[in-house]
Amino acid sequence: MTDTMDERLAQKFAATGFIEQTPIQKAVFEPLVTGQSIDALAPTGTGKTLAFTWPLLPLLQPNDGEQLLILAPSQELAMQTTRVVREWAQGFDLKVLALTGGANVKNQLDRLKKHPEILVGTPGRVGELAASKKLKLQRLRTLILDEADILLQDETADQIQNVWELFGDEDIQVAMFGATAVINQRAQTIFRREFTRIDLRDVQMPTSLQHQFVLTANDQKNKRLRQLATRKGWQAMVFFNTTKALKQTASFLAHEHVAMATLVRGDSSRTRASALEAFRNGQAKFLLTTDVAARGLDVIDLPAVINYDLPRDGETYTHRAGRTGRMGRTGKVVTFGNDHDLRDLKRMVQVEIDVLPWQQIVEQSERAKSKTPAYGKNGWERTKPQAVPKKSNVKAQTAKLTQEQDLDKPRAKQRSTWTIGAPVTEPVKKSERLAKEKKAKRRNQKDKGKPKHKLGRELGKRNLNGRDN
C-alpha cells in the first residue's frame, strides 16, 4: 500500500481485504495528487476505476459543489463506476450523482440542487444538461475520461468538446484512462494541452486466463450454447458483432427455456439494469451483448467469455477477454468459428490459443466450479429430476429431453424451467397431443346421441322403461 494514501482510505483498504495496489494504481497515484493531466493505459481488469478514485477523494471539499466529473461511454459503465466511487466516498462525506441518458431527468435535476461533489455521467446527458444551463461546472477541478479511446471518437468526442467549451479551463486537471491508446491529436485539440502518458499495458496482472477455440459451424453455435447451459456453476458473457444476430440467438434460447439476459443499446435503462442485475445475481446463465454495450463492465469472478462471433480486431478481442480473469482471477475465453476464423484469430492476437474438441470444453465446464458454490442461489440451475420406478404410470422425468415417451401412459406434470421474469413450461410434444385428440374423438363417437348431462341421462332411462310419460 502506498505510504502517502490518506488514513481514511488506508483503513477501508485494509478492511475491504486488499493486500496491495496494482501497478496502474501505484503509477498514477502521485501524478493525480499533484494535478497532472495524464493518459493512463493498462490492461482490462487491473483496477483502473479505483486507480483514479483513491488519489482524488481526499482532495475534494464536502459541501463545495461539483468538483469531479467522470465520463463513461455507456449507461452501464457509468452506473458501475457510480457504485464503486460512492462506496469509497462515504468515508469522506461526499455525495455522488449519476447523470446518464435513459434515466429520469427530473430526478437528476432535483438531486443536482444538492450540489453533489462528484458527478458520473455519459457525454450525451451531461452535454444536454450543460447546454440547457441546468448543469453548472464552475467549480470543476478534475475531469476523468474512462475508456477514453471510445469517448474521443465521432459524435461522442463532439459532445465532450461542446461541454469543454462551456466550462473548460487550463487549470482543470484532465485524466484519460483505458486499455487502448487514444489519438493524441484529438485529445490535444479538445483540451489544448499535452498529456503525460503512463503506459503499463505490458505489465500484466498475475492471472490464469485460458484462450480456447472450438471448431463450430454457424448453424451449430446456438446448439453449443444450449448444451453449455446445462452445466452447473458456470456463467458466460456472450459477445456478438451485430444486434440482429444477438436477438436471433436470444429467441432460440428463450424457446429452449435457457435462463439468459440481453444487454442491447436502445433498450430502456431499466431493462438494461434488470438484465445486468439478473446476470450478477446468477438468475441468468448467459448475458448476450455487443462490444459497445459491455465495454468496461465488471462481473465479479465471471468464469468465462464466449465469442459467438469472431472479434473484428485484436483490440476488440482484448476488451472482451478482459471481462473474465479480472484482478488476478482465473477465466476462460472460448471462441466459436471455422478454420478461416481460427487463422484470422491467430493473426489478430499474440496469445497461445488451444484448439479443443467440443467434448473437452464440456468436461472442463463441468469441473470449472466443482470446488466453489455456484453463482447466486441456484437461480438458473435446474433441479435434478426425481427417480421414478419403471413400472410407474407417471412418465419418468430425466435430463435427456429426447427420451421417447410411452403414449399409452398418462403424461407427467409439466416441468418448469427458469427464465428471466417467470417460470414457463415446456411445450407438449406433437405426438402426444395427436394421441390425446384421437382418444377424445373415439370417446365422442361412443357417446354420440347420448344426453350430455346427468339429469338428461336419468330422464332418458325413465322414458325407455315407460315411466313418467
TrEMBL record:
It comes from Weissella kandleri. Gene3D superfamilies: P-loop containing nucleotide triphosphate hydrolases (3.40.50.300). Keywords: ATP-binding, Helicase, Hydrolase, Nucleotide-binding. CDD domains: DEADc (cd00268), SF2_C_DEAD (cd18787). This is ATP-dependent RNA helicase. GO terms for cellular component: cytosol; ribosome. It comes from the Bacteria. Residues 427-437, 456-469 have a biased composition (Basic and acidic residues). Residues 365-469 are annotated as: Disordered. The keyword Nucleotide-binding applies. InterPro entries: DEAD/DEAH_box_helicase_dom, DEAD/DEAH_RhlB, DEAD_box_RNA_helicases, Helicase_ATP-bd, Helicase_C-like, P-loop_NTPase.
